[in-house]
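Below is a filled-in request sheet from our internal design queue. Each sheet records the structural input a requester submitted and the sequence that came back. We keep these sheets so that new team members can see what a complete request looks like end to end.

REQUESTER: design group, bay 2
PRIORITY: normal
MODE: inverse folding
CHAIN LENGTH: 175
BACKBONE (tokenized):
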């Protein structure tokens, strides 16, 4: 046992020393190839040009479409007033992009039976789905699934965690 402890200590010391190892760089630093423009350079499809976003609006961090989670009150499937603009934006996006599709994933916190939470997650996805349809999204663009309490966003057992777990997530199916 004592021999094993010494062996582990030597191995751990070697790992720490190896991790702290520095490598010398040649004078003047490493040569860096500029690929920001011209042939061989890659362009980012979602980059900003002149201060405006170009690319898929789903990738625009300043768009309401970047919000992909809607939260619910305890035992409620009513979309909160503050989340309606988000759902409306997603509905209009789907209406304007016939090739886009989304899966709505309904979740519940751990309180309640498994069956109750599955049904609650389904009611939540259906509430969001109805709002998306009202904005012009086509039924075939929207799929729903309820996970109930099976995939918590926060595994803790307190009100803060439960409030994060009562949600519907928008998962876009990109091709």
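RETURNED SEQUENCE:
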């Amino acid at each position: 046992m004592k021999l094993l402890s010494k062996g582990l200590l030597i191995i751990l010391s070697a790992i720490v020393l190896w991790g702290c190892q520095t490598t010398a760089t040649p004078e003047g630093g490493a040569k860096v190839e500029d690929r920001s423009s011209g042939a061989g350079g890659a362009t980012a499809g979602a980059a900003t040009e002149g201060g405006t976003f170009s690319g898929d609006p789903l990738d625009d961090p300043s768009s309401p479409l970047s919000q992909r989670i809607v939260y619910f009150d305890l035992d409620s499937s009513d979309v909160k007033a503050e989340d309606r603009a988000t759902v409306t934006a997603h509905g209009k996006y789907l209406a304007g992009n016939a090739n886009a599709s989304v899966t709505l994933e309904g979740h519940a916190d751990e309180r309640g039976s498994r069956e109750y939470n599955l049904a609650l997650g389904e009611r939540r996805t259906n509430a969001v789905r109805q709002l998306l349809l009202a904005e012009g999204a086509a039924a075939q663009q929207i799929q729903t699934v309820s996970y109930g309490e099976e995939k918590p966003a926060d595994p803790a057992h307190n009100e803060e965690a439960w409030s994060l777990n009562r949600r519907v997530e928008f998962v876009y199916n990109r091709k």
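SHEET NOTES:
- The longest strand covers residues 142-148.
- Residues 12-45 have pLDDT under 50 and may be disordered.
FILED BY: M.R.
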